[in-house]
Design brief:
The chain has 178 residues and is mostly helical. The longest helix has 86 residues. The protein is elongated.
C-alpha cells in the first residue's frame, strides 16, 4: 500500500491508502498484510484521563468552590470561642469532603450512565434528525425563494417603478414665516 503522508486533526501521521491490489480486508500479498497489521489503533474511548486536574475546562470555577469562610462568618464583636470556631471549621470541611465522596460513590456511576445516555440521544437526534431536516428545509426554501423572486420582479417591480415615476414630479418646499 502506498500513498502520500497526511496529518489528521489530532496530529497523527498516516499514509493515505491507495489500493494497489487485493482486498483491503483480505490482502493477497505479504507486504499489504504486514502494513495492515502494524497500524497502531488510536481509540478515543480509552484516552488517558488526568486524575490531578479534573476540571481542565474550568466548568465549575464559579459554582462549587465553597469554603467555610464563604458560608459561615462572625462579624467583628461577636466571636465564639476559638476552639468552637476551629471545630466548626473542621466539621464543615471534613463533612463536605466525605459527604461529597459518599454521594459520588453511590450516585456517580448511575449519573454518568444517565448523562451518557442523554448526550448519546442528543447527538443521535442532532446527527440523524435535526441537521438533515435543516438541510432539507434550506434546499426546499431555496427553490421557493427563486419562485418568490420571479413573482416579485414580475409583478411588484413594474408597480413600484410606476408609483415612483408618479411621485417623482412632486416637489416640496418649506417656508418659514415670521
Amino acid at each position: 500500500m502506498s500513498g502520500t503522508k497526511h496529518v489528521d486533526s489530532e496530529g497523527f501521521l498516516y499514509k493515505a491508502p491507495i489500493r494497489e491490489q487485493g482486498n483491503i480486508y483480505k490482502p493477497n500479498n505479504k507486504m499489504m498484510a504486514d502494513e495492515l497489521s502494524e497500524k497502531a489503533v488510536h481509540d478515543v474511548h480509552t484516552k488517558e484521563i488526568d486524575l490531578v486536574n479534573r476540571d481542565p475546562k474550568h466548568l465549575n470555577d464559579d459554582v462549587v468552590k465553597i469554603d467555610f469562610e464563604d458560608v459561615i462568618a462572625e462579624p467583628e464583636g461577636t466571636h465564639s470561642f476559638d476552639g468552637i470556631w476551629k471545630a466548626s471549621f473542621t466539621t464543615f470541611t471534613v463533612t463536605k469532603y466525605w459527604f461529597y465522596r459518599l454521594l459520588s460513590a453511590i450516585f456517580g456511576i448511575p449519573m454518568a450512565l444517565i448523562w451518557g445516555i442523554y448526550f448519546a440521544i442528543l447527538s443521535f437526534l442532532h446527527i440523524w434528525a435535526v441537521v438533515p431536516c435543516i438541510r432539507s428545509y434550506l434546499i426546499e426554501i431555496q427553490c421557493i425563494s427563486r419562485v418568490y423572486s420571479i413573482c416579485i420582479h414580475t409583478f411588484c417591480d413594474p408597480l413600484f417603478e410606476a408609483i415612483g415615476k408618479m411621485f417623482s414630479s412632486i416637489r416640496a418646499t418649506v417656508r418659514k414665516e415670521i
